Amino acid sequence: MNGPNRTWRGAVLFLLALPLGLLGPALAAGAAGTPAPAPGTSANANPVAATAAAVPQSLFIVPTSPKQGRNPFFPRSTFNSSDTQSKPEPIDTSGVVLNGLTSPPRATAMINGRTFEPGESGEIKLRNGAKVLVRCLEIRTDVVVAIIGAQRCELRLRHAL
After folding, report:
1. What is the C-alpha to C-alpha distance for residues 115 and 129, in angstroms, rounded to an integer?
2. What is the b/e burial string over 74-110, where b = at least 16 CB atoms within 10 angstroms of the residue's CB?
3. What are residue 132's DSSP bridge partners?
4. Cβ atoms < 10 Å from Cβ of 145
5. Can you tell me whether residue 48 is helix, strand or coil?
6. How much is the pLDDT for 26?
7. Domain ranges of the chain
8. What phi and psi, each to the nearest 5 degrees, are found at residue 35?
9. pLDDT category, 74, cuts 50, 70, 90?
10. What string of H, E and C letters represents the secondary structure of the chain?
11. Of the chain's two ends, which shows fewer C-beta atoms within 10 Å, N or C?
12. What confidence tier does 132 reach under pLDDT thresholds 50, 70, 90?
């Protein structure tokens, strides 16, 4: 009975002494390297907050011309100024057709074969096969207000010919 108890006690003592053995030198070095509080400050001041406030903030301004430098994040990028950027070409909305409407409580509109609810966005195909993004803003009795590409349009139901 003496043998197993001795082994168990030795293992417990070893496990208790291990953290102290590892942390002891670190705690002693930390206590010896702690600077004295500056005159006029309290001894209870938080040293972590004082060092966090002393860290300077980085400020980076993206250059707009080669004379100002290059962008370190995208060094091969070319410089674009706002006056050289062209506006998107207007989309021919003559091929966009309001196929149908449903009534409340859940109003929907079918535009070029795709169903939209107010606030919903999606792509539709035009006559030439191109796809364009449509955002349905509002559905009224016989009119749908939508943003097609970058243009705001009112689509009306076509009545019997």
Report:
1. 18
2. eeeeeeeeeeeeeeeeebebeebbbeebeeeeebbbe
3. 124
4. 16
5. helix
6. 63
7. 93-156
8. -70, 155
9. confident
10. CHHHHHHHHHHHHHHHHHHHHHHHHHHHHHHHCCCCCCCCCCCCCCHHHHHHHCCCCCCCCCCCCHHHCCCCCCCCCCCCCCCCCCCCCCCCHHHCCEEEECCCCCCCEEECCEEECCCCEEEEECCCCCEEEEEEEEECCCEEEEEECCEEEEEECCCCC
11. C
12. very high
96 residue type, one letter: V
Nearest of 115, 97, 105, 77 to residue 153 by alpha carbon: 97
| Residue whose token pair is 């001041």 | 45
Q: Return the structure tokens found at 33.
A: 């390297």
Structure tokens that stand for 122 in this block: 């999606």
Peptide bond just before 105 cis, omega within 30 deg = yes
Residue carrying the six token digits 């909305």? 93
Q: Tokens 């370190």 label which residue?
A: 72
Rounded to an integer, what distance in angstroms lies between the CA atom of residue 45 and that of residue 7?
Answer: 47
Q: Round to whole Å and give the CA distance between 85 and 74.
A: 19
For domain 93-156, the CATH architecture is Roll (2.30)
In the numeric block, which tokens belong to residue 140?
């009224």
**CA dist., res. 66 & res. 128, Å (int):** 41
